[in-house]
Amino acid sequence: MKLSPSDLTTIEDAIRDAESRTTGEIYCVVAEESGDYGETPLAWAAGVALLAPAILLLAGVHVSAPDILGGWSAAQVSHAAERTAREALLGAILLQALLFVATLLLVAIPPVRRALTPRPFKRERVRRRAREQFAAKNLHLTRERTGVLIFVSFAEHMAELIADEGIAAHVDQAVWDGAMAALLAGLRRGEPGAGVAAAVGLCGEVLAQRFPADPNFNPNELADAVVVLPPG
Questions:
Q1: What is the band of 69 on the pLDDT scale with cuts at 50, 70, 90?
Q2: Which of 126, 159, 166, 191 could form a disulfide with 146 if both were Cys (CB 3.0 to 4.6 A apart)?
Q3: Which CATH class is domain 5-37+118-229?
Q4: Closest CA to 227 of 41, 86, 28, 91
Q5: Is residue 166 scored above 90 in pLDDT?
Q6: Nearest to 47 by CA among 131, 139, 116, 110
Q7: What percent of the chain has pLDDT over 90?
Q8: Please, which residues bridge with residue 10 across strands?
């Protein structure tokens, strides 16, 4: 999912309209993906490789020593048992290596990797990148501490809204949840531009109520353009 030029225009128009009615600032950042989740292929590969002994047992492979009553000497029995055990161990190690490599290559495929990454882990990564963007774009340095960041990560189908302390303390969380619900509904419909614009509009209404525009002085402290980040 990506934003088209018309989507970017729609969102930027929504930001300008919302900010014309408030001294607050709304900033939108969109990421293709919030992380490479390199840990996921390694974790799955290691887990599957550990199943190798169980797979061998289920396949009917077992280790047994020769019957010493069949005329074998103790030395012969010991040597045969050692060789059998060594071959079984080597087979298990080779199977583990094959399973590890095969699983690693399979899970490294981006759609598979994303599907097999636990949702809480993706949520944490999206939230962390949103906080990084909030600080990097200096949303905490607006005049009245009323900056609002809307962060969308397409690959994870997740979004975060961070409001600076000047506005966060005055607005119930349910209000922000409503803005996020409108955004996510747009993503589910395959209309990311409309979803983000709807969230911007709802945030603008909140800001206009608490921090209405000053007709004599209402500078635009942050750019209205949508920032599109590469995977990271």
A1: very low
A2: 166
A3: alpha beta
A4: 28
A5: no
A6: 116
A7: 31
A8: none
